[in-house]
Specification:
Layout lengths: L12 H17 L4 H29 L55 E5 L10 E5 L5 E5 L2 E7 L8 E3 L12 E3 L4 E6 L1 E3 L10 E15 L5 E14 L5 E4 L2 E2 L59 E6 L10 E10 L3 E6 L6 E6 L2 E4 L10 E4 L4 E9 L1 E2 L10 E2 L3 E18 L10 E2 L8 E6 L3 E5 L1
Parallel strand pairs: 4-7
Antiparallel strand pairs: 1-2, 2-7, 3-6, 3-9, 4-9, 5-8, 9-10, 10-11, 11-12, 13-14, 14-19, 15-18, 15-22, 16-17, 16-22, 20-21, 22-23, 22-24, 22-25
Helix pairs in contact: 1-2
Keywords: Membrane, Transmembrane, Transmembrane helix
């Protein structure tokens, strides 16, 4: 009746904790989240301890009727020293392959930060906040790290989903960054890009967010081959303002440029008129050349020279002249173009386009008609007027029409278009772009200019 209860198995509390840590390390190597596995193992240990205590209570209650002397005098419980706890091996995370541009709403809660050969994290130096992040060589050999110099930041909501885009830098306003030559453990400072809205939504609300960062890099070992990838960092706690600028990162102030006030676009000023307008006039009054008279265009006279801009208009034969025979007649177009910087009021001779024919510098045919006109026409700057006349391969040299024209001998000839030209008023554009006053013919006086326009000669053949 006084038999003692056999001593229970010794309770190794430290050994139990060591077992928990070992199991947690094994879970991490299997791809599980370490902290989550530790919590599961701790719960299991507590359940085992509760079961043990429950069983002990049952044994105590079972022996109560026998006596308490044996129960109160159990064998001493031996406490063994705890075995050494192995440290969990951290997981090596390499840069992502290719570019990294997560879409708005994408779940990044399982994204792991890069740990090798470089890592991305807050700048731990006492800097000015202009480079709030740094890239660190975590290996044991020197590296050259080339990048854009600024980290793209993405804000995450409470579920770890992307809530912002990043604003790329304008290469036209940023100098190309220099690559970092990093010894093992050495770091290089990096700036931040701004955050932008998702689609047509507004900018993320100003305040505190969780964020991750990405940096496209090209790492080159001292004696190796360059490897491109995207280094991921975070998550970090950041503060953004209402313009999408990160103002603090993990409690460290980030230097931001001053906000630029919205300014209305500049309205271009009306350009001043040029101080010199090529082809325009230096005076309000024209200096006309000596006119070509009717008598100057008769047979036997020297072939006429083409009139120039001095008469405020030009005349030309439009198109080639076909081959003629002694009895043929062809319709030919003549074109009148007024000066580009003159407004004119002239006598209307649009029904009277004429010509003369010359050979070897002498007029050999002059079928000019004497007539009058009582109409006027206004000619704007650069206006064009076409007229037609009938060309006959005959020598018409009788101004009064009393003789019959004779066929031209076969050979090569020159055709000169002729147009009567009488100016009653004009205004000239000045070299500063303004227009001078209108110069008019006085009542009862002759026209301001009275003569004929002559085209440059065009060669044709008579068979």
């Amino acid at each position: 009746m006084n038999d003692k209860i056999p001593p229970s198995t010794p309770l190794h509390l430290d050994a139990a904790l060591s077992e928990i840590a070992t199991d947690a390390s094994r879970a991490a190597s299997d791809g599980l989240t370490g902290s989550a596995e530790v919590r599961r193992l701790v719960k299991r240990s507590r359940r085992q301890r509760a079961t043990a205590f429950g069983s002990a209570g049952f044994v105590l209650l079972g022996v109560a009727g026998i006596g308490l002397s044996g129960v109160l005098s159990p064998a001493p419980v031996e406490i063994l020293p705890a075995p050494p706890v192995p440290s969990p091996t951290p997981e090596a995370v390499e840069p992502l392959d290719g570019a990294f541009a997560p879409a708005c709403g994408e779940d990044l809660s399982d994204l792991l930060a890069t740990t090798t050969p470089v890592a991305l994290g807050p700048d731990t130096s006492d800097g000015t906040g202009e480079t709030p992040l740094q890239v660190t060589n975590t290996g044991d050999t020197p590296l050259t790290v080339a990048s854009a110099g600024r980290v793209a930041v993405y804000l995450l909501d409470a579920e770890g989903k992307v809530a912002s885009t990043h604003v790329p830098d304008d290469p036209a306003t940023n100098e190309a960054p220099q690559p970092f030559d990093l010894a093992p453990g050495e770091s290089g400072g990096l700036g931040l890009s701004g955050v932008g809205p998702c689609g047509d939504a507004a900018l993320p609300a100003a305040g505190t967010w969780s964020a991750i960062g990405s940096l496209a890099t090209e790492t080159t070992p001292a004696d190796g081959v360059a490897a491109a990838g995207t280094v991921v960092g975070g998550p970090w706690t950041v503060t953004v303002d209402d313009q999408g600028r990160v103002t603090s990162l993990d409690g460290r102030t980030v230097a931001v440029p001053p906000a630029q006030p919205d300014t209305p676009p500049e309205v271009p000023e009306t350009p001043e008129p040029p101080t010199y307008l090529p082809g325009a006039f230096d005076s309000e009054k024209a200096t006309f050349p000596a006119p070509v008279e009717w008598e100057d265009l008769q047979c036997g006279s020297p072939a006429p020279a083409a009139t120039g801009d001095g008469a405020l208009a030009r005349l030309k034969v439009a198109g080639p002249v076909p081959v003629m025979s002694g009895s043929s007649e062809k319709s030919v177009t003549a074109r009148l173009t007024t000066h580009a910087h003159a407004r004119l009021d002239v006598v209307d001779w649009s029904f009277l386009y004429e010509y003369v024919i010359s050979q070897d510098g002498v007029i050999v045919s002059s079928p000019l008609i004497a007539t009058d006109s009582y109409e006027n026409a206004e000619m704007q700057p650069g206006s064009v007027q076409d007229g037609r006349f009938t060309l006959a391969a005959t020598a018409s040299c009788d101004p009064y029409g009393t003789s019959t024209p004779q066929p031209l001998p076969p050979g090569t000839y020159q055709l000169h278009a002729i147009y009567p030209w009488m100016i009653d008023s004009y205004a000239l554009q000045q070299t500063d772009g303004t227009w001078g006053r209108t110069i008019q013919r006085e009542a009862g006086a002759e026209a301001l200019f009275k003569g004929r326009l002559v085209s440059a000669p065009v060669t044709f053949t008579v068979q």
